[in-house]
Amino acid sequence: MGFKFERLDAWKKAIEYTDAMFDIADGLPQKYQFSLGEQLRRAALSIANNIAEGTGRDNPNEARYFFGISKGSVYETVNILVIIGRRGHLNRETYHQHYRSADDLAAMITGLLRAQR
After folding, report:
1. 99-110: average pLDDT
2. Buried b vs exposed e over 36-52: b needs ≥16 C-beta within 10 Å?
């Protein structure tokens, strides 16, 4: 049967996106591992975690709260990717690929938010 969130396309996409963000973080030079790497990992984890937690709430206002945090975390990862790129550790093509994934994911989370109204 499984948990409700496991059936959500948004959660599945968030897991894939998290894997990609971990790959980027893992490839950063040692001097950026704690600052940028760890922050990217935490923000990416927050996306799927908060989708899962939001689906576990019976109150629509509580669910919206967690979905909102999840969407904010998507934006946070994009900001971190910009900084990583400016430091020369992410090429434009890879950045744009992940930017499109983040945009799609944010739209899916917006759908979750609207479904709670």
Report:
1. 98
2. bbebbbbbbebbbbbbb
